[in-house]
Amino acid sequence: NRVYRLAHRPEGTPTHDAFDRSEESVPDPGPGEALVRTLYLSVDPYMRDRMRAGESYAEPWDVGDALRGAVVGEVVESNGAGFEVGDVVTGELEWADYATAPGTELTQIDPDVAPLSTRLGVLGMPGLTAYFGTREVAQPSAGETFVVTGAAGAVGSVAGQLAKLQGARVVGFAGSDEKIAFVEDELGFDACINYQTTDDYRAALDEAAPGGVDAYFDNVGGEITDAVFTRLNVDASVAVCGQISMYNDEEPPAGPRKLGQLIQTRATVEGFLVRDFQPRFEQAAKQLGRWVGAGDVAYRETVTEGLENAPDAFLGLFEGENIGKQLVQVAER
Ligand code: NDP
Asked: Is this complex scored with an ipTM above 0.90?
């Protein structure tokens, strides 16, 4: 049983030596627990924060702790956990081939409803983040202009499509021409700006969003957000979902730098955490499933094969290597 543990707390951008892979025995499930064989492991930007000591919304890992993440797996042993052998479940488990968890922390999945991987992407936490962040926080109306950063990623790709379903004009920011093509051609955004090859974000926004920005879904922060703030309209709403451009910084940035824009626009800026919407997850996931089934919401996944490649998959998030949801396939069902 391969298990990944935190080798040390990385400073700045993590490298492979932050991940310690050990060969350990398969754990025995305690009373009320299940032993789960990992099929898919999700790697997510917030995991960078868990590698840091100190305050965050996610509990920090200690050096030596097993890394954890959202997993879809198969129950191989149940010690009164309330599952049958062979049941497919999801929950937060270790980065490992096998891990135990209390039955109360696992949710059964019907494997016939949707591909299992979607439970970690479009129908899972990232899709739900897009759902609540767009519909409850940013709240674009028909005819308004909605801007989303990280537009080709797990959250941003869905957020933009949900804003389109609300009738908004949707503009994305993403980091490669392949991503721009995906966002404009497959997801149907009105425009997407390649921030890696565009020097003047403001001019690019003026062209893509001539009427200004009414709702902004921010996944990355930094200079792109500065530029979007200068193009906010009166009464605009800003949903602060993530700030990935700063997750590897050791020093907090000087800023936010464009708060003056909020005075003249009377814009509202609201941070949110998807977990606060937990009571409504099931209903929202069903709605997302209906849209995906009807072809109204498209999704993509970047699936890295093999647990041994999980660190690469995680580090790739900060290099923009993924299109859509980044997953690791650990085993076949
Ligand atoms: P993504 O699938 O979007 O993957 C990360 C992407 O971020 C990369 O592909 C890359 O795309 C982009 N990126 C990386 N570094 C930078 C940078 N320096 N500047 C600009 N873009 C960068 O991840 P998720 O969809 O899972 O998460 C998106 C954001 O949402 C993250 O900030 C995450 O922390 C946040 N989040 C917040 C939640 C909440 O409850 N508030 C819940 C879930 C996620 P590109 O090539 O375009 O640069």
From this structure: yes
